[in-house]
Amino acid sequence: MVKKIMKTVLIVGGSRGIGKAIALSMADSGWDIWLTYQSNHKAAEETKKAIEELGVSCRIFAFDVADYSATMEALSKICDETPPHAVVYNAGVARDNLMVWMTKEEWNTVISTNLNGFYNIMHVVLFPILREKRGRIVAVSSTSGQIGQAGQVNYSASKAGLIGAVKALAREVGKKNIMVNVVAPGIIETEMTKEFPKDAIIPLIPLGRFGQAKEVASVVNFLCTEEDMYVHGQVIGINGGLAI
After folding, report:
1. pTM, full prediction
2. How far is 90 from 140, CA to CA, in rounded Å?
3. How many domains does the chain have?
4. Is 37 a catalytic residue?
5. What is the CB neighbour count within 10 angstroms for residue 95?
6. Bridge partners of 32?
7. Could you give the CA distance from residue 125 to residue 146 in angstroms, rounded to a whole number?
8. Quick check: is 200 in a domain?
9. Domain assignment present for 195
10. Which of 84, 94, 150, 211 has the fewest CB atoms inside 10 Å of its own CB, making it the most exposed?
């Protein structure tokens, strides 16, 4: 009898919303989960319990992805010893404001988490994955990073930068059998969007509704798990037609 090899996915920002949906989807596909979060211990424990109920293991790591030293301390040893088979970068914050009023703190906070955090994570996981000559990397960007959005200059810049980083990284590591892609969700029903004016936004979306976190998770799951894969360096919009 051939022993089944369990695969592991590192989900950065996985305790709530889209990240939680991705974690549950991957767990349902039989993957063990490494889940990172910043400070909401209750949400992380609840997600961990839900994952384990699906019959796979889950390890959780609490740290600020914008902090390089904290990221290294939390993940460098485990990633070096047992490199994950896939990495999903879903960490993200928003500090919306018109550019003319935007504070330096609002700019720095968003860039540090959404973009610099990607560097911090890649600096930990990339060499171990390259050593294995296999892997999948998926970054969660945003429609705002594709077309821009008033009041989100910082957020749009960070998410557009993430797209550029992934496209360049895809050129670097493709020959090592590591596939790197981006998903760009539109308006997804999460805590981040619950205060959005639906009556004003929905008419702009051809499908006539906000998206669901599970609809993002299903695409990420495909990019991480599909064996017959020739998708690399691409940006896949999940936006109901908001950006065409």
Report:
1. 0.96
2. 5
3. 1
4. no
5. 16
6. 8
7. 26
8. no
9. no
10. 150
